[in-house]
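Data availability (excerpt). The following record was deposited with the supplementary files.
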Amino acid sequence: MDLIENAINTLNNGGIIGFPTDTVYGIGCDAHNLIAIDKIYKIKHRNKEKPLILFIKDTAELDKYVYVPEIGLKLINAFWPGALTIIFKAKPGSPVTSSNNTLGIRIPASEPIFSILSKYPNPLATTSANIESSPPPNSHLDLNIKVDFIIPGTSGNISSTIIDISFSPVILREGKISREQIESVIGKVTKSG
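Predicted structure:
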């Protein structure tokens, strides 16, 4: 059985997988499995107030979970698949939403996670593979939390950029994609903090 099949079996059984991405090494589970999501919060010692990110396989899935304004389409066309996490206003019943009813989504631009997303029926609830407040790893060799299945590999060492467009656009974290790159697509953007 290959890595992808093993990873999908793990997800089907409510497990957590570790995987390389185009940003940092990550972990994830089925976004509709509340027990698995709870396990991610426990192993990371992560505050429940900090939402996880939804990985989806393609933009056709967006309509199920979020409202996409015009500015969102511009960002998607410019940066997806890739290292931009976009926070949208969530639709009722969407998984892993924040307390203010928003949802961060990304389509990663890397194998093998893209293959898993293409074959698995649900999106993944994801986060970096580190204990909260320690630096995120860029390889499975640096993993210091226990997951159910590991896909070996090396990621970059720069996190995704996070932009919140649920109201007016605000960059919450500048990562792999620069503020200048974003502003070249949508114009001036506020940066929080």
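Summary of structural features: Residues 34-44 form the longest helix (11 residues).
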